[in-house]
Write a structure and sequence with these properties.
Layout lengths: L4 H27 L4 H26 L11 H8 L5 H23 L6 H31 L4 H29 L10 H12 L13 H10 L4
Bound molecules: fe (ii) ion (2 copies).
One fe (ii) ion binds next to α4 and α5.
Amino acid sequence: MQPDPHLVTVFNYYRDAEMRGATLLIRLCNMTGPGDVQTALSRHICDETRHAWLWTKRIMDIGGVVVPLDDGYQRRIGRVGLPRTIFDIFALTVVVEQRALTRYNEHLARPDVDADTRKTLEDVSKDEHWHIGWMESAAKEMARAKGDEKLYDIAIAKYRVIDDEVTIELNKFESGTFGFSFSHPFKPEDIEIARHYREKGARTMQDERNSEPPGVRAAAAAALGGI
Ligand SMILES: [Fe+2]
Ligand SMILES: [Fe+2]
């Protein structure tokens, strides 16, 4: 049976968001000094890469293809301009983490979620709470050190505008491609819409094979044999 193209695509977008989240945190490691911040960042990076792996595994388990994306959430945020200072990266990360948690919760709120996907959504969501908490405290502390606590609220408000625009764009892309978004409340007709797109194959990522030579793909497939 063909994998559900809607799920394969959404899981690839979730995976991309986790991978790029980890990338941003690694950048922060190179910008901050020794001590507790490095330690917290290391733990945080470990979580985000684990989340990326859980979505990778989910894609594989439903028979989908893992696809690198260049139009995911962070790439779209980046087009508006990525922050350069440590304070701004912390503030942006708070907004990004809140968006991830909101999106996972919206998906979880729907009744049309299979048990394994629900388990993955719950697993990744539980880590996002401490991610938001520590980044928020650190960013607020930096604003206080700059002499004005309001700088935190101003930065968050700035990134929330960008996040809202990107989220609307992505939900529109999802609904336009697959008939509905997992961000939206469930409607009974979604069952029929999902069946239609499954049968049609939609604009499926299954067709997008990577460009590695067959020998490289074979070596990767062999490495994955035991997973
Ligand atoms: Fe995550
Ligand atoms: Fe996170």
